[in-house]
Amino acid sequence: MMNVLRDGRSERGTAQVGKRHDLKTVRWYVLTLPTTGVARRDRISPAKSLDAELSRRKRRGETLFEYFAPSYVEVRKVDGKMVNTKRPLLFNYVFIRSSVEEIFQMKRTLPLYNFLPRVSSGGMAHFPYLSDDEMGNLRWVAESYSNELPVYVPDSDRLLKG
Asked: Does residue 2 lie within any of the structural domains?
């Protein structure tokens, strides 16, 4: 009796089939944007660039994706006036529901987005992802605040140190 899986080539072939399948599996992947310092961080808007990419894909009939980039509203004083500023809640993280293959295609037009480093699980390495249930919980919390969490930043002279 011949065990096909004992042949090294068969094992590699099985692993390759598993890898290809994993590249096409749609999940909530965690992507990052580069941190560019406080002065420039307002210029990077995950929602704006992802909305533009979705619009482009719709026009071309390409595969669509879903994303989650929660924000918060910061109230601060600018030139003596109180101003609401919308900022990303998870500064340089965004969640995209798509396949690894599709995300790599997206990276051709949005090269600043990167996967987190691979993690190992059960002898296989993969990019970190969240289950639909875990993502549902995270979205539920954000939606409780209408996807915008209010934050008030007091004047520095009103803060007590210590």
From this structure: no
Structural domain contains residue 8: no
Q: Which residues pair with 30 in a beta bridge?
A: 95
Torsion of CA 114, 119, 123, 126, to 10 degrees: -30
Q: What is the dihedral of CA 73, 77, 78, 81, to 10 degrees?
A: 100
Q: How many domains does the chain have?
A: 1
pLDDT in tens, 90-130: 778 899 999 999 999 999 988 989 999 999 888 888 899 99
CB atoms within 10 A of CB 30: 16
What is the extent of the structural domain holding 57? 24-155
pTM over 0.70: no
Q: What is the DSSP letter of 89?
A: S
Q: Please name the residue that has the structure tokens 């999940």.
A: 27
CATH number for position 88: 3.30.70.940
Q: DSSP characters for 97-152?
A: EE-HHHHHHHTTT-TT-EEPPPEEETTEEE--EE-HHHHHHHHHHHHHTTTEEEEE
